[in-house]
Known about the structure:
Helix content is 65%, strand content 0%. The protein is an all-alpha fold.
Amino acid sequence: xxxxxxxxxxxxxxxxxxxxxxxxxxxxxxxxxxxxxxxxxxxxxxxxxxxxxxxxxxxxxxxxxxxxxxxxxxxxxx
Length: 78
């Protein structure tokens, strides 16, 4: 469940800003914590880390796109 929460949040940050992804995913993390009887703090931290990791791909951050083509980077370099 934690891995799915991380992956979905990280995927969401590729399309919208990281702040918006965190705002959308936090209520979902809260509901997961209630249903699964998991403490909320670890899930909130997972959402924050996943939302902040949008810079780790060339698509997730505009500066990465600027240097992606001209410098000859590949996707695995990020």
